[in-house]
Amino acid sequence: MEFDFVTTEDNVATYRSSHEIFVGLIREVRELSRKKPEATMSTGKVKIVNRVIEDLLTFLKDGQEGKYLEVLDTQALPQVSDAVLTMVQFETAIDKFRDRHLRRVQGKMYWITKELLASWEEKASEAG
Prior knowledge:
Blueprint: H1 9-35, H2 43-60, H3 80-101, E1 102-105, E2 108-111, H4 114-127
Antiparallel strand pairs: 1-2
Helix pairs in contact: 1-2, 1-3
């Protein structure tokens, strides 16, 4: 089988470990933005968001959307509304990553990874 997009098990593991945390963070930052969009984020909040964003960048930076992604500035702290904008870019890139690499094959969902394809090739050659 041919797949247009292939990732690694390490990238999938990072996606799995950081995705839900990111979803929770963006929900909270959006809520803060509704209340006080012009408020400046604290250094602590920026560091928390950046820890997750840095994990996400390990597998998103090489994707098509990667050139638009960057961590929040810890020197010139962003306003909450600016942080939401940055995080929405990550949210979109995460969704694209999942859409490109999670595929239904013979009725089952698989993350298309180099390791998975290698194991399928090995099984095919053993059976062949």
